[in-house]
Amino acid sequence: MKFISLVASSLLAVASGDDLGFNLHYSAPDDAGTYPVIFFVTGFSGLAPGFTYSSFVKDVSSKGYIVVSLDHIKLPNYPAQGQAFNGVMEWAKAGNLLPALKEAKINAVPDLEHVAVMGQSAGNHVVGQGLSDGCSLAKAQIMIDPVDGFDPFGKVHSQDLITPGQKLNYTTPTLLLDNELDPKKLNRLFPACAPAELGANRWFDAAAGPVFNVNASKYGHIDCLDDLFIAAGKLICPTDKSTDKKAYKSHLADSIYIFLTGLFQGEADNFDKMEDPTSFGVDVTLRQDLKGMAHEDIKPGCVNSAVVV
């Protein structure tokens, strides 16, 4: 398995003539097979460096996915960065991803008929904003510790994606992965890294399509990072030093595999697993809102009600 980084605004732009607005980092199986693609926006709207998630991303790609991680060195601007994220999908749709992978000496071939979008923390705000602009290649959404809003105190609403009580304007099958420490404050000096009013419940309620929620009971907002960066991040976000962080990252990757295999390979029995806590390698609590759909009726796809076809 290979993990390669290229900078979109420099190396890739030379070939394509485009400034994609993000740095692109690739993780893929070693062989020349064809694999589904996951576009992943890191935390803090993409400001968190992609390499801080390397163990988790490698766990995901080892299960048979090409993971394209997106980061940047820019302050949050969710309307602009959502548009840029949508633009990356359109860039890939136009045929640019395969030559970019070959330039990175990755032999795996992207299956653009099976594409998921994923974010961590406020990276979900970028992804959701991008989908609200148009579905593009997306056929499924994965949210890890999602956060809406422009500021963690919930005082500035000008860039909010979600209006409480309303559904998002796009419909796609969704996996929401969160944990019990997400909405907890480290101390009085810092807000929670995923405040309750901006976090998982807000996103669960706003999902217009079927959504599976898997909450890892003992873990925290930064536990998906590499161990070195968990050590730094615990100065801001709470984490339980007694928990097995490797097991948690494996849990995230396994959950994604169960969900996407159910969708992309038509294995509806996998959705039964999403509702069975014994399917997971760590303690979890589960909930679902399938919008009245039977498991066998949940199919990959995305429909944007604001886009006129």
Give a topology summary.
Layout: E1 2-6, H1 8-16, E2 23-28, E3 34-41, H2 54-61, E4 66-71, H3 78-93, H4 97-103, E5 109-120, H5 123-133, E6 140-144, E7 170-171, E8 174-179, H6 200-206, E9 211-216, H7 227-233, H8 245-264, H9 269-273, E10 284-289, E11 303-304
Parallel strand pairs: 3-4, 3-5, 5-6, 6-8, 8-9
Antiparallel strand pairs: 1-2, 2-4, 7-11, 9-10
Helix pairs in contact: 2-8, 3-5
In short:
With 309 residues, the protein is an alpha/beta fold. The chain is 29% helix and 21% strand.
Give an overview in words.
This protein has helices at 8-16, 54-61, 78-93, 97-103, 123-133, 200-206, 227-233, 245-264, 269-273, and strands spanning 2-6, 23-28, 34-41, 66-71, 109-120, 140-144, 170-171, 174-179, 211-216, 284-289, 303-304. By secondary structure, it is α/β, with parallel strands linked by helices. It has one domain (2-304): Rossmann fold. The protein is globular, with a radius of gyration of 18 Å. The termini are far apart.
